[in-house]
TrEMBL record:
Pfam families: RimK, Rimk_N. It comes from Mangrovimonas cancribranchiae. GO terms for cellular component: cytoplasm; ribosome. NCBIfam families: PRK10446.1 (NF007764), rimK_fam (TIGR00768). This is Probable alpha-L-glutamate ligase. Keywords: ATP-binding, Ligase, Magnesium, Manganese, Metal-binding, Nucleotide-binding, Protein biosynthesis, Ribonucleoprotein, Ribosomal protein. GO terms for molecular function: ATP binding; metal ion binding; ribosomal S6-glutamic acid ligase activity. It comes from the Bacteria. Its cofactor is Mn(2+); Mg(2+). Residues 104-287 form the ATP-grasp domain. GO terms for biological process: SOS response; translation. The lineage of its organism: Bacteria, Pseudomonadati, Bacteroidota, Flavobacteriia, Flavobacteriales.
Amino acid sequence: MNIVILSRNSHLYSTQRLVEEGLHRGHDVEVIDPLKCEIIIEKEQPKIYYKDRYLDYVDAIIPRIGASVTFYGCAVVRQFEMMNVFTTVTSDSIVRSRDKLRSLQRLTKAGVGMPKTVFTNYSRDVEEVINSVGGTPVIIKLLEGTQGLGVVLAETKNAAESVLEAFNGLQARVIVQEYIKEAKGADLRALVVDGQVVGAMKRQGKDGEFRSNLHRGGSAKIVKLSEDELKLAMKASRALKLPVCGVDMLQSERGPLLLEVNSTPGLEGIESATGRNIARAIITFIERNYK
Ligand SMILES: Nc1ncnc2c1ncn2[C@@H]1O[C@H](COP(=O)(O)OP(=O)(O)OP(=O)(O)O)[C@@H](O)[C@H]1O
Ligand SMILES: [Mg+2]
Ligand SMILES: [Mg+2]
């Protein structure tokens, strides 16, 4: 099979691991920077031009589209879809997953537990917003933040007000969320491939940090998920039509609560915490489904 990994950087751990496992399984694997692809639109002849050639021989793609290049990256993925090339995640589901509000709205319908969340355009009274998620402390987060940046814990009404004011001044859209303190600065990341959980880790924020992101200095260890946690991860993957994804959850007194679903989950943290070969699971998923 000819597999293309759409990634801006062939030196990234996740990209390298996918190349390695693809080659190991006997495939031709190529890393292509989606930003260097030209999309050619013509009646019944969708094409992609890259460097000196047309990419008309590709059987499957693995999009590794960073948040900063969602628009162009997804246009390239969509073009491959028009050319009937198999993709591990579709352009529509990547776009959808980038917006936390949009994802959570969809997931409420799928019966997935989540922290109580309010979306506001700031025309409402801040006190009312805070009360509607159960009072302070509250979490305020950017709709399109990543790696824990743009997630703020506001302990008091005054703090919440200033933060909302600041984001509002920057014309940044945010959600206000109930703070799950029982989670104690930890969260769960379930790696889903082919709709099944193939590995899970618990991430703990460094001392005094409520955000458990590895990029913010958190540490990870392998964890065995409960039945409810497994179910939630698989439900979320199905509801957002992301057969390959990273599902983040918080452990609360009322069971697991979904935080977000990542369509380009990193492999380094999860492979080293669990010792599982996640990259190979992604390649064999393609083998089973690409026809
Ligand atoms: N409602 C909440 N209650 C308690 N802790 C929270 C809450 N929301 C987020 N956190 C903590 O902050 C971290 C970052 O939040 P979130 O995953 O929503 O943001 P992100 O920036 O998109 O992160 P990622 O890099 O995983 O995409 C979470 O992993 C969790 O540890
Ligand atoms: Mg995220
Ligand atoms: Mg997260």
